[in-house]
Amino acid sequence: MIHSFRDAARTREKQSVDHPNRSDQPTEMAGKKIMFTAVADQGGNFGPFEAETTVVYNKVITNIGNAYDGTSGIFKAPVAGYYYFTFFYHAGENSKSALKLMKSDSCIVEAFDKNATTADNAGNAAFLQLNENDQVYVRLSPDNRIWASGYTTTFSGFLVSGM
Length: 163
Fold this sequence. Notes:
Elements: H1 5-18, E1 28-29, E2 32-33, E3 35-39, E4 44-46, E5 53-54, E6 59-64, E7 68-69, E8 74-76, E9 81-91, E10 97-103, E11 106-113, E12 120-130, E13 135-140, E14 146-148, E15 154-162
Antiparallel strand pairs: 1-2, 3-6, 3-15, 4-14, 5-13, 7-8, 8-13, 9-12, 9-15, 10-11, 10-13
């Protein structure tokens, strides 16, 4: 059987109609996309603190759909769906570091380094099923610190598909 380029184009066109939420493109819900990337830029070390502290990623790079609040550090799901989140950080020498990705006060994944003798980078990621208004954020564990200057400590997320 011989297929032409035109046949392939028709097949992709048909697949796009049948499956509009392709994984290589952000999902649109009610005509808008939901995605964000923000950087913690606090001028240097963030922490240590006596209690768990929400990391505020105050330098917002992208916030399509306005679901991320750069003053609180909290992402609030505008629609129910399946989302993907990542966080990465840098910790300087002589710094214990531990961050947790939180969903409404429950730890989903974490990244940490208890060897405080060298500078390190770490991160983690997760797919989450969220209901409308669920909150996702990153917390710094007590007595830990991260580097919050420049573009090394980031938090990102996007809607993969609706429910």
